[in-house]
Amino acid sequence: MLFRLMRSLLSEHRAAVWAILVLQMLQTAANLMLPTLNASIIDDGILTGRSDVILELGAWMAALSVVQAGAALGAGYLAAVVAMKLGHGLRRSLFAQVQAMSSQEVNGFGAPSLVTRATNDVQQIQTFAVLVFTMLAAAPVMGIGGIVLAVQQDAALSAVVIVVVPLLVLIMALIVRRLIPLYRQGQTLIDGVTRILREQIIGAGVIRAFVRQDHEAARFAEANRKLTGNNLESALLVAGMLPLIMIVVNLSSVAVVWFGGHLIQAGNMQVGALSAFIAYILQILLAIMMAMYVFMTAPRAAVCAERIQEVLDVQPAIAGGVGAAGLDAAGPDTTVEFRNVTFAYPGAETPVLAGISFTARPGSITAIIGSTGSGKSTLLNLLPRFVDAVDGVITLGGRDIRTFGLNDLRERMAVVPQRAYLFSGTVAGNLRMAAPDATEEELWQALRRAQADEFVRKLPNGLNAAIGQGGAGLSGGQRQRLCIARAILRKAQLFLLDDSFSALDYATEASVRHALAPVLEKATTIVVAERIASIMDAGQIVVLDGGRIVAQGTHAELLKTSRTYREIAESQLELNRLP
Fold first, then answer.
1. What is the DSSP secondary structure assignment for residue 398, as one 8-state letter?
2. Is the separation of the CB atoms in 395 and 337 below 8 Å?
């Protein structure tokens, strides 16, 4: 999975990858030649007293050292560049995939897990890529070349290599085998810590209000303890690798010197050859250590690759159609019709919505009302296809919405979500999400209609006032009015208002609805509301109960014919005060 993912991402960087491999080969070849030259200097120069040989071979060694250093620097630089581009491509792919996924698919992974996968997991793969380019590419050549040259120096003494290499490979295999499940568990534990921390930051006010700081601190401490224990166990395994390797390396060096000394004493080996053999043994062991270090990090990178691939492999359930050809851009029909629509979450025993049928026409407000959990917001989310109906048809202008391109469909709508969300930036930046080319006058006009201009003028820098993530620093009513202003800037053909006045007092709500009347005059408007007072003037009110339509009509008609609507009305207002 890991190498398949990397191969697909590196396909556009083939030239740089080949350059890295060539430079690594050049560096390794130079490194392998140095001990042989050094042996010749000792045997043919120093021991024979020939200074010309020492100078000539010394110059070659200096030149090879320069080539080795230059190749190492070039390979390291290119490896870092390619690894960073690989991470950039992964994050871009993950972001695009998450944007294409439906709300259900995002919730299936969870926001904390997706954040971890796009940050920590990608970083682990970047780190592994750097190690592969700088170590793993050179290790095989260094190891094989070292063995060949060591055997060339003395075949009998090479028996040490035959003993040492399998022992080091066995150590590596045992440690890596234990690391893989630890790393897999560790990434899951990181998700858990991120989730708890996110909940505690977002819900800090609720935690303080119910005096649950100690409980939440204990919950975080437990998750933190498990993650620390997992990291400590894996770190100890990695740390234990070095002493084991050094024991093997030192024992092998002692064995080489011991047996080599006896060979020199017997006249069967020269001093320079022993020096070169020791250098090659160390290079062989270094190559094995480099490979082991890469393979020690491979399990974590492999787990991260699996987690990333899980996201990339998701086939978004909601896909766009062939486009919006056939609609008159100048004056399209924006009649919305639900025909026996049903929606259910995967695996649910009962549907959230069942048999929904109604028509919302241009120039009229259609209101959706019902008790909490009756499916009002879900019904509204079906229109922009944040979720898709499992049965039935929804049409816009007589055309099935599933035949529209997603962007084409959503560009015809302006949505005020149930949760008034603002992005970090400025007031103007948030408003221009709906209309990037809007002028300041258009922004102020939208703010006036949303009854938000007064408080915006009082903010430092007005339209350029800083907004925190989620609208931090603003009241619920202020955030809601800014979201309304953002929606009406869209000049859309269809407005979807999901309980958009819930944070406003009755006087402000009345002012906003009055100011919005000219904007909504020709558009199709569907409003989800909890308060009867917000929808009494609607041309059509659809009453939901248990995911089904139990009544349709005007306010006056429903008071007479619908028991459910009357119960909602009586729970909010004194009946004798209703018009």
1. T
2. yes
Res. 88: pLDDT tops 60: yes
Paired tokens of 264 = 């020199």
Two structure tokens written together for 556? 């006056």
**Could you tell me which of 185, 193, 173 has the C-alpha nearest to residue 306?**
185
Looking at residue 332, what is its pLDDT? 61
Sheet harboring 540-545: ordered strands across? 413-416, 494-498, 524-529, 365-370, 540-545, 548-553
Whole-angstrom distance, CA of residue 393 vs CA of residue 413: 18
**Max avg pLDDT among 99-113, 122-136, 315-329, 507-521:** 507-521
Instruction: Tell the burial category of 309 from Cβ atoms under 10 Å away from its Cβ (0-12, 13-18, 19+).
Output: middle
Per-residue confidence (pLDDT) for residue 343, from 0 to 100: 92
Rg (CA), the chain: 35
Structure token digits, residue 51: 């200074």
At 117, which helix (H) or strand (E)? none
Strands (E), 513-566: 524-529, 540-545, 548-553
SS3 194: helix
Please compute the mean of the pLDDT values over residues 515-529 and round it to a whole number: 90
Closest CA to 125 of 28, 7, 44: 7
Look at residue 357 and tell me whether its pLDDT is greater than 90: yes
Residue with the larger pLDDT of the pair 296 and 494? 494
List Cβ neighbours of 527 (8 Å cut-off, separation of 6 or more).
365, 366, 367, 368, 497, 500, 534, 535, 538
Q: Phi, psi (5° rounding) for residue 249?
A: -65, -45
What global pTM score does this model have? 0.69
Which residues make beta-bridge pairs with 302? none
Q: Are 487 and 498 in contact (CB under 8 A)?
A: no
Distance CA 562, CA 470 (A): 39
Domain 336-577: assigned CATH number: 3.40.50.300
- Backbone φ and ψ of 343, nearest 5°: -135, 135
Do residues 434 and 385 lie in contact, with contact meaning Cβ atoms separated by under 8 Å?
Answer: no
Q: What Cα–Cα distance (Å) separates residue 552 from each residue in 18, 305, 370, 462, 530?
A: 69, 52, 12, 44, 16
Enumerate residues 6+ apart whose C-beta is below 8 A from 521: 363
User: Which residues of the chain does CATH 1.20.1560.10 include?
Assistant: 2-312
Half-sphere exposure at residue 579, Cβ-oriented, CA atoms within 13 angstroms: 8
Residue type at position 529 = A
* Residue 185 in tokens: 């568990």
Ranges of CATH 3.40.50.300 domains, the chain: 336-577
Q: CA-to-CA distance for 499 and 376, rounded, in angstroms?
A: 9
Of the listed ranges 67-81, 295-309, 500-514, the one predicted with least confidence = 295-309
Domain spanning 2-312: CATH superfamily: ABC transporter type 1, transmembrane domain (1.20.1560.10)
Most confident of 239-243, 280-284, 567-571: 567-571
Give the confidence band of 83 by pLDDT, cuts at 50, 70, 90.
confident
How many CB atoms sit inside 10 A of residue 539's CB? 13
